[in-house]
Design a protein that fits this description.
heterodimer; A: about 675 residues; 6-stranded antiparallel β-sheet; 4-stranded antiparallel β-sheet; 21 helices; B: about 150 residues; alpha+beta; OB fold (Dihydrolipoamide Acetyltransferase, E2P); 2 domains; 5-stranded mixed β-barrel; 2 helices; elongated
């Protein structure tokens, strides 16, 4: 089976090369036959890589420890579920996972466009195959997931790190990869368009939905990572500005900039060259991120082992950048804007500022993440960039961006008149002022970011509600529809726009969650059994210390009763614990206990214990508003399902079944988001 | 160069200049940028580091972790990492630095774990008071496994 997998990789190398060659030759000779052959090549690569992925999963499930990768990340006592997901638990397998997802996306893109966009598809296929080839080469030559022990295979594995044995291991890496790799497809379309010199809106229309999907997956993937850290790791936070976190976040920033600025190209034929710069940069950043995570270039709690894989990635990144930017420069004459910026009070300008902010943020995070490596290369000294650096910069940038989220949709294209400004901005500004004054009076604010965040959140929410309200009213008056009808038609007629508003609202909610960080409480306390302590609005009493064993691990639990502070009204029970696993040896995990509400989370960690004296040392935290972060993400999921819904116009041209597929995808996403919301909050 | 281009160039320069200045200012702050030193460097030349906020890296000495009962106060010994690229002062092998830390420790914190502690070396050069503690497990997943089982 391992041999089969390895040969699958070798064949992928061959077929992908052929496909790229067929696409190039077919394009230049205008040979439809060769192009079709190339398309089939893409499907074949997908088939081969699916086979390789199935092979590796089989090896895990069949406990085949003659394969090194399986032996490192699995053991006989692991639940079946985690054996399958150990596929992406280590370096080599995660590369295979990466390229498998790539092949899925590529096959879908080719299928979608099998009768369309004939001019740009050939070189789009070429770029997709080049990326696939790169990963195949890396795996075959330095990171073979199918490598076996030549002599004396161990009978059992080392086991997957227990920190990775939880449901998040199933959802976070795949979602993140889907998003990360999702940005490769738009990039390939860009290269296709550049190569063929078809630089109008065609390539953007072809990949617009891909961008949404990639953005969505990346957003959810990042949030899941944060949720995982929050629920499982026990340090009480969800984002640490760790290099691997940053690696995924930086392309998210430039990708968000891209999604917004392509709308300007759609409406006014502007920012053509800029959009190409953005998507090429986003792709390069995803590659840099992938390199950072794997090459040992940066120190991180997430990082895979150090290896020389970094060199491969480095040259691939340099090569891709040279080729794509080179093509862009070559085509610069064709990228003249159709129109120019007419006014600062225009939506185009708001999008431009949005882009500047997002790019500044991306640059800063990249700088902070790479600085230690650069510093070491130049001076030989080691240095660490702390979270303070990132927070100092990202907070003001984030707040400006939040402000723009409200302002942008209210400005008109080209130029907003004075009366439009008055009409659009009056209500939200009043709302913001009210929140500002009441916040100032009611809350005990010592630092400005939390209050400013909440004021801006109120402002943006007011703008969004105003848009929905006015839109519905307008329809009711003009189309003489009832309120409910008008609302639904509003959403279906302008899906992108209203889906976008819902996504914005989700982001606003996440900012509300971020604002809560400013009011956090934390305390370490040692309690005797029966003793109580108070933190914030909660009273915590230690009832008993429990010691249990289930064969796989030793469990030490502190049973705690939570009451309303100052009263004996019981709110609930919590059981923070520490689990000591037998295999891998002495691996200890912290089992966090939390009590959730929209107002805040009571978050308890068992820091230490003294069995003889019946003492437990607890770390108590109160995290206000943190659940708004997860709730906000759920709203972005809902908004995404609305925005990505297929347009009615196009639907008429296809069969009922084909219309059903994107709609089904949307419904599925909606259902998943509801389920996710329910599961998070239970 | 017309007026329009001059305006663009000037604004870009202004933005870059302001940004660069702010960046340099932030990095100057020891809270944002902390230098890292191996335990061997600090053992050999303690006077260079007394009173400065630094990151200290090494391995936890076996059987050296002590916890004050009923608290989260820890004291342990840190010894230099004995890996070819990382050991700058071989004469420091065998010696340790005493580290004190208060707070919840990561689950990976145990004998032989690779740790990075952030804090200050106290006058006297023998005690390091740490405000942050990071630990990596005695690695099973690192590249050193490449050499084992080779053919």
């Amino acid at each position: 089976m391992a041999q089969l997998g390895y040969y699958g990789l070798l064949f992928t190398l061959v077929i992908a090369s052929y496909t790229a060659a067929a696409a190039i030759v077919g394009h230049h000779r205008s040979s439809a036959r060769l192009i079709t052959s190339a398309q089939n090549g893409v499907y074949a690569v997908f088939g081969l890589l699916t086979m390789c992925s199935a092979a590796i999963m089989y090896l895990f499930v069949a406990n085949d420890y003659s394969v090194k990768y399986v032996q490192h990340y699995s053991d006989r006592s692991m639940p079946l579920f985690y054996k399958a997901t150990a596929f992406w638990g280590g370096q080599d397998g995660s590369l295979l996972f990466w390229v498998w997802v790539m092949s899925i996306w590529a096959a879908i893109a080719v299928y979608q466009n099998r009768n369309k966009n004939r001019e740009i598809m050939p070189y789009t296929i070429v770029s997709m195959m080049v990326v696939t080839l790169f990963f195949a080469v890396v795996m075959i030559f330095t990171a073979n997931p199918f490598e076996t022990y030549l002599a004396g295979a161990p009978t059992d594995g080392r086991g997957l790190n227990p920190l990775l044995q939880n449901p998040y291991m199933v959802t976070h890496p795949p979602t993140l990869y889907l998003g990360y790799i999702g940005w490769t497809i738009p990039f390939c379309f860009a290269v296709g368009a550049l190569a063929h010199n078809k630089l109008d809106y065609t390539w953007i229309a072809a990949m617009r939905r891909w961008c949404l999907v990639a953005w969505f997956c990346l957003t959810v993937g990042l949030t899941l990572g944060g949720l995982w850290a929050y629920e499982e790791l026990g340090w009480g936070g969800y984002w640490a500005w760790d290099p691997v976190e940053n690696a995924a976040f930086i392309p998210w920033l430039t990708g968000t900039a891209f999604i917004h600025s392509i709308q300007v190209q759609e409406r006014r034929g502007m920012y053509k060259a800029w959009n190409l710069v953005l998507i090429i940069t986003t792709f390069i950043l995803t590659m840099i991120g992938t390199m950072m995570t794997r090459s040992g270039v940066v120190q991180s709690v997430h990082a895979f082992a150090q290896s020389d894989i970094g060199t491969y990635f480095f040259w691939f990144i340099v090569g891709s950048a040279v080729v794509s930017f080179g093509l862009l420069i070559y085509r610069l004459p064709q990228l003249r804007p159709k129109q120019g910026l007419e006014s600062i009070l225009s939506r185009e300008f708001a999008f431009l500022v949005n882009n500047w902010i997002l790019l500044a943020a991306a640059f800063l995070v990249l700088f902070g993440t790479l600085f230690p490596s650069l510093f070491k290369a130049v001076t030989g000294r080691e240095v660490n960039v702390g979270a303070t650096f990132f927070n100092t910069w990202m907070i003001p940038l984030g707040l400006i961006l939040l402000f723009l989220t409200g302002v942008g949709p209210l400005l008109s294209w080209r130029k907003s008149t004075g009366s439009t400004i008055r009409q659009q901005f009056t209500l939200p500004t009043v709302v913001a002022a009210i929140v500002a004054i009441s916040g100032w009076l009611a809350l005990d604010i010592t630092s400005w970011p939390p209050l400013t965040t909440l004021i801006l959140c109120a402002f943006v929410t007011a703008t969004i509600l105003q848009e929905f309200w006015r839109g519905t009213m307008h329809r009711m008056k003009n189309a003489k529809e009832g309120a409910a009808d008008a609302f639904v038609t509003l959403m279906t007629r302008a899906r992108r726009r209203h889906g976008g508003y819902v996504i914005h609202f989700g982001v606003v909610l996440m900012f509300v969650g971020f604002a809560g960080e400013g009011f956090k409480l934390e305390e370490d306390k040692t309690l005797k059994v029966g003793e109580a302590t108070v933190i914030g609005n909660y009273g915590v009493t230690l009832d008993r210390l429990r010691f249990e064993d289930d064969g796989q691990k030793n469990m030490i639990t502190a049973d705690v009763t939570v009451t309303k502070a100052g009263t004996s009204e019981v709110i609930g029970q919590l059981a923070p614990a520490k689990w000591a696993y037998r295999k891998p040896e002495d691996q200890v995990t912290t089992e966090v206990a939390k009590m959730m509400s929209m107002r805040d989370d009571l978050y308890l960690v068992l820091g230490g214990y003294d069995a003889e004296n019946s003492l437990a040392t607890l770390q108590l935290k109160v995290n206000p508003l943190v659940n708004f972060v997860w709730l906000g993400c759920t709203f972005t999921m809902v908004g995404f399902s609305i925005a990505v819904w297929p347009d009615k116009k196009k639907a008429r041209a296809t069969t009922r079944v084909r219309r059903f597929i994107p709609a089904f995808g949307t419904i599925l996403t909606f259902v998943i988001s509801v389920v996710a919301a329910v599961m998070t909050f239970i | 160069m017309n007026g329009h281009t001059i305006k663009i160039v000037l604004s870009v320069l202004l933005i870059l200049g302001a940004g660069g200045f702010l960046l340099a200012d932030t990095l100057d702050n020891p809270d944002t940028l902390t230098y890292f030193h191996g335990a061997d460097e600090v053992i050999v030349k303690p006077n260079d580091f007394i009173g400065q906020r630094i990151r200290l890296g090494g391995h936890v000495e076996k059987d050296s972790i002590m916890q004050k009962p009923a608290t989260l106060d820890f004291q342990f010994e840190v010894k230099p990492v004995n890996k070819p690229g990382m050991l700058k002062h071989p004469e420091a092998l065998g010696k340790t630095i005493t580290v004190r830390y208060s707070g919840v420790v990561p689950d990976t914190f145990k004998d032989d774990a690779e740790v990075i502690v952030t804090g200050k070396l106290q006058p006297g050069g023998e005690l390091f008071i740490a405000s942050e503690l990071l630990a990596k497990c005695p690695s099973k997943y690192e590249a050193e496994e490449k050499s084992a089982g080779e053919y």
